[in-house]
Amino acid sequence: MIHPGRALQCVVFDLDGTLVDTADDFVPAVQKLREEYGHGPMDANAIRASVSNGSRALVTLSLGIQRDEKGFEDARLRLLDLYDEVLGRFATPYAGVPALLRELEIQGIRWGVATNKPRAYAAPLLKMLKLETDSLVCPDDVAQAKPHPESLFKACADLNSEPRRSIYIGDHLRDIEAGQRAGMYTVAAAYGYIEAGDCADRWGADIIITDSEQLADAILNEEGIPS
Q1: Distance between CA atoms of 124 and 209, rounded to whole angstroms?
Q2: 3-state DSSP call for residue 209?
Q3: C-alpha Rg value of the chain to the nearest Å
Q4: Which of the residues 61, 84, 143, 171 could staple to 189 if both were Cys, CB 3.0 to 4.6 A apart?
Q5: Does residue 211 carry a catalytic annotation?
Q6: Residue 197 confidence (pLDDT)
Q7: How many Å from the N-terminal Cα to the C-terminal Cα in the chain?
Q8: Which is nearest to 200 in space by CA: 5, 18, 60?
Q9: Distance CA 49, CA 93 (A)
Q10: What pLDDT was estimated at residue 167?
Q11: pLDDT-flagged residues of the chain (< 70)
Q12: Rounded-to-integer distance, Cα 23 and Cα 34, Å
Protein backbone atom coordinates (compact mmCIF):
# COMPACT_ATOMS: atom_id res chain seq x y z
CA MET A 1 0.00 0.00 0.00
CA ILE A 2 1.02 3.61 -0.55
CA HIS A 3 1.39 5.68 2.61
CA PRO A 4 -1.71 7.93 2.92
CA GLY A 5 0.48 11.00 3.49
CA ARG A 6 -1.54 14.20 3.82
CA ALA A 7 -4.70 12.23 3.15
CA LEU A 8 -4.25 10.26 6.38
CA GLN A 9 -7.55 10.14 8.28
CA CYS A 10 -6.95 7.73 11.14
CA VAL A 11 -4.43 5.45 12.84
CA VAL A 12 -5.54 2.18 14.43
CA PHE A 13 -3.33 0.33 16.90
CA ASP A 14 -3.20 -3.20 18.18
CA LEU A 15 -3.13 -3.04 21.98
CA ASP A 16 -0.74 -5.50 23.69
CA GLY A 17 2.78 -5.16 22.35
CA THR A 18 1.97 -2.19 20.12
CA LEU A 19 0.24 0.65 21.96
CA VAL A 20 0.85 -0.60 25.50
CA ASP A 21 3.55 -2.77 27.05
CA THR A 22 1.38 -5.14 29.08
CA ALA A 23 3.82 -8.04 29.42
CA ASP A 24 4.74 -7.29 33.01
CA ASP A 25 1.09 -7.74 34.00
CA PHE A 26 1.05 -11.21 32.47
CA VAL A 27 4.36 -12.43 33.93
CA PRO A 28 3.21 -12.57 37.59
CA ALA A 29 -0.15 -14.05 36.56
CA VAL A 30 1.52 -16.88 34.63
CA GLN A 31 4.08 -17.52 37.36
CA LYS A 32 1.30 -17.71 39.97
CA LEU A 33 -0.63 -20.15 37.77
CA ARG A 34 2.43 -22.36 37.48
CA GLU A 35 2.90 -22.24 41.24
CA GLU A 36 -0.70 -23.30 41.79
CA TYR A 37 -0.19 -26.25 39.45
CA GLY A 38 2.98 -27.33 41.20
CA HIS A 39 5.56 -25.89 38.80
CA GLY A 40 8.50 -23.60 39.46
CA PRO A 41 9.01 -20.20 37.82
CA MET A 42 9.69 -20.08 34.08
CA ASP A 43 11.71 -17.68 31.94
CA ALA A 44 9.88 -14.36 32.08
CA ASN A 45 11.09 -13.46 28.57
CA ALA A 46 9.31 -16.51 27.15
CA ILE A 47 6.08 -15.28 28.76
CA ARG A 48 6.56 -11.78 27.38
CA ALA A 49 7.16 -13.08 23.86
CA SER A 50 3.89 -15.03 23.90
CA VAL A 51 1.58 -12.32 25.29
CA SER A 52 0.17 -11.36 21.87
CA ASN A 53 -1.01 -14.94 21.35
CA GLY A 54 -3.59 -14.67 24.11
CA SER A 55 -4.61 -16.64 27.18
CA ARG A 56 -4.86 -20.02 25.46
CA ALA A 57 -1.30 -19.83 24.21
CA LEU A 58 -0.09 -18.74 27.63
CA VAL A 59 -1.77 -21.74 29.28
CA THR A 60 -0.10 -24.10 26.80
CA LEU A 61 3.23 -22.35 27.28
CA SER A 62 3.07 -22.34 31.06
CA LEU A 63 1.49 -25.74 31.77
CA GLY A 64 2.26 -27.71 28.63
CA ILE A 65 -1.37 -28.69 28.04
CA GLN A 66 -3.35 -28.26 24.82
CA ARG A 67 -6.77 -26.68 24.48
CA ASP A 68 -8.46 -30.03 23.80
CA GLU A 69 -7.07 -31.61 26.99
CA LYS A 70 -9.02 -32.06 30.21
CA GLY A 71 -8.57 -29.15 32.60
CA PHE A 72 -7.39 -26.70 29.94
CA GLU A 73 -10.38 -24.36 30.20
CA ASP A 74 -10.27 -24.38 34.00
CA ALA A 75 -6.62 -23.36 33.82
CA ARG A 76 -7.37 -20.63 31.29
CA LEU A 77 -10.14 -19.15 33.43
CA ARG A 78 -7.87 -19.23 36.45
CA LEU A 79 -5.16 -17.43 34.49
CA LEU A 80 -7.65 -14.73 33.53
CA ASP A 81 -8.66 -14.32 37.18
CA LEU A 82 -5.01 -13.94 38.16
CA TYR A 83 -4.45 -11.46 35.33
CA ASP A 84 -7.49 -9.44 36.39
CA GLU A 85 -5.97 -9.06 39.85
CA VAL A 86 -2.92 -7.26 38.42
CA LEU A 87 -4.53 -5.62 35.37
CA GLY A 88 -2.83 -2.30 34.65
CA ARG A 89 -0.54 -2.47 37.65
CA PHE A 90 2.64 -2.74 35.60
CA ALA A 91 1.43 -1.87 32.09
CA THR A 92 2.64 1.34 30.44
CA PRO A 93 2.28 2.98 27.03
CA TYR A 94 5.36 2.42 24.90
CA ALA A 95 7.91 5.20 24.78
CA GLY A 96 6.87 7.87 22.30
CA VAL A 97 3.23 6.77 22.18
CA PRO A 98 1.73 9.51 24.41
CA ALA A 99 3.50 12.21 22.39
CA LEU A 100 2.36 10.58 19.15
CA LEU A 101 -1.27 10.53 20.29
CA ARG A 102 -1.07 14.22 21.22
CA GLU A 103 0.38 15.04 17.81
CA LEU A 104 -2.37 13.09 16.04
CA GLU A 105 -4.93 15.09 17.99
CA ILE A 106 -3.23 18.35 17.08
CA GLN A 107 -3.28 17.40 13.40
CA GLY A 108 -6.91 16.30 13.52
CA ILE A 109 -6.09 12.65 12.82
CA ARG A 110 -8.30 10.29 14.79
CA TRP A 111 -7.01 7.11 16.41
CA GLY A 112 -8.43 3.86 17.68
CA VAL A 113 -7.62 0.38 18.94
CA ALA A 114 -8.47 -2.96 17.31
CA THR A 115 -7.41 -5.86 19.50
CA ASN A 116 -8.08 -9.53 20.11
CA LYS A 117 -8.11 -8.75 23.85
CA PRO A 118 -11.61 -9.12 25.36
CA ARG A 119 -13.36 -5.85 26.18
CA ALA A 120 -13.58 -6.82 29.87
CA TYR A 121 -9.80 -6.30 30.06
CA ALA A 122 -9.09 -3.86 27.23
CA ALA A 123 -11.54 -1.13 28.24
CA PRO A 124 -10.50 -0.84 31.91
CA LEU A 125 -6.83 -1.03 30.95
CA LEU A 126 -7.14 1.95 28.59
CA LYS A 127 -9.11 3.83 31.23
CA MET A 128 -6.44 3.18 33.88
CA LEU A 129 -3.76 4.48 31.52
CA LYS A 130 -5.89 7.50 30.58
CA LEU A 131 -5.81 6.59 26.90
CA GLU A 132 -9.11 7.92 25.59
CA THR A 133 -10.11 6.82 22.10
CA ASP A 134 -13.23 7.12 19.97
CA SER A 135 -12.95 3.51 18.85
CA LEU A 136 -12.11 0.34 20.76
CA VAL A 137 -12.90 -2.83 18.80
CA CYS A 138 -12.57 -6.15 20.64
CA PRO A 139 -13.51 -9.72 19.70
CA ASP A 140 -16.78 -9.16 21.55
CA ASP A 141 -17.73 -6.53 18.95
CA VAL A 142 -17.27 -8.57 15.77
CA ALA A 143 -18.22 -11.93 14.32
CA GLN A 144 -14.64 -12.70 13.26
CA ALA A 145 -11.47 -11.61 15.05
CA LYS A 146 -8.13 -10.80 13.43
CA PRO A 147 -6.65 -11.82 11.01
CA HIS A 148 -10.12 -11.28 9.52
CA PRO A 149 -10.40 -7.57 8.63
CA GLU A 150 -13.85 -7.06 10.20
CA SER A 151 -12.49 -5.34 13.32
CA LEU A 152 -10.48 -2.91 11.19
CA PHE A 153 -13.44 -2.08 8.98
CA LYS A 154 -15.42 -1.35 12.15
CA ALA A 155 -12.65 0.80 13.61
CA CYS A 156 -12.44 2.87 10.40
CA ALA A 157 -16.22 3.24 10.36
CA ASP A 158 -16.20 4.36 14.02
CA LEU A 159 -13.58 6.96 13.15
CA ASN A 160 -15.36 8.05 9.96
CA SER A 161 -12.32 7.11 7.90
CA GLU A 162 -11.64 5.21 4.71
CA PRO A 163 -9.36 2.16 5.11
CA ARG A 164 -7.17 3.29 2.21
CA ARG A 165 -6.54 6.52 4.10
CA SER A 166 -5.80 4.75 7.36
CA ILE A 167 -2.87 3.01 9.04
CA TYR A 168 -2.88 -0.13 11.15
CA ILE A 169 -0.01 -0.97 13.50
CA GLY A 170 0.54 -4.36 15.11
CA ASP A 171 3.16 -6.72 16.50
CA HIS A 172 1.92 -10.00 15.02
CA LEU A 173 1.52 -11.52 11.58
CA ARG A 174 -2.27 -11.64 12.05
CA ASP A 175 -2.28 -7.85 12.54
CA ILE A 176 -0.50 -7.24 9.27
CA GLU A 177 -2.71 -9.75 7.46
CA ALA A 178 -5.83 -8.05 8.82
CA GLY A 179 -4.56 -4.63 7.82
CA GLN A 180 -3.68 -5.78 4.32
CA ARG A 181 -7.05 -7.46 3.84
CA ALA A 182 -8.74 -4.24 4.95
CA GLY A 183 -6.73 -2.24 2.41
CA MET A 184 -4.85 -0.23 5.04
CA TYR A 185 -1.22 0.85 5.17
CA THR A 186 0.45 -1.56 7.62
CA VAL A 187 3.19 -0.98 10.17
CA ALA A 188 4.90 -3.92 11.89
CA ALA A 189 5.74 -3.10 15.51
CA ALA A 190 8.90 -5.18 15.74
CA TYR A 191 9.55 -3.76 19.20
CA GLY A 192 6.57 -5.75 20.50
CA TYR A 193 6.03 -9.35 21.53
CA ILE A 194 7.61 -11.52 18.87
CA GLU A 195 8.23 -15.17 19.61
CA ALA A 196 11.55 -16.92 19.07
CA GLY A 197 11.70 -18.16 15.49
CA ASP A 198 9.35 -15.48 14.20
CA CYS A 199 10.51 -12.35 12.39
CA ALA A 200 8.63 -9.21 11.41
CA ASP A 201 10.57 -9.16 8.13
CA ARG A 202 8.45 -12.10 6.96
CA TRP A 203 5.06 -10.50 7.51
CA GLY A 204 4.95 -8.31 4.41
CA ALA A 205 4.16 -5.06 6.23
CA ASP A 206 4.59 -1.78 4.38
CA ILE A 207 7.14 -0.70 6.98
CA ILE A 208 8.84 -2.23 10.02
CA ILE A 209 9.52 -0.21 13.17
CA THR A 210 12.02 -1.55 15.70
CA ASP A 211 11.76 1.33 18.18
CA SER A 212 8.43 2.72 19.37
CA GLU A 213 9.87 6.22 19.43
CA GLN A 214 10.15 6.01 15.62
CA LEU A 215 6.40 5.55 15.23
CA ALA A 216 5.64 9.25 14.93
CA ASP A 217 8.06 9.68 12.03
CA ALA A 218 6.76 6.54 10.30
CA ILE A 219 3.14 7.63 10.60
CA LEU A 220 3.39 11.35 10.01
CA ASN A 221 6.10 11.32 7.34
CA GLU A 222 4.31 11.26 3.99
CA GLU A 223 6.56 8.54 2.63
CA GLY A 224 6.15 6.41 5.75
CA ILE A 225 9.92 6.27 6.18
CA PRO A 226 11.47 7.38 9.51
CA SER A 227 13.75 10.36 8.98
Answers
A1: 27
A2: strand
A3: 17
A4: 171
A5: no
A6: 87
A7: 19
A8: 18
A9: 17
A10: 97
A11: 222-227
A12: 16
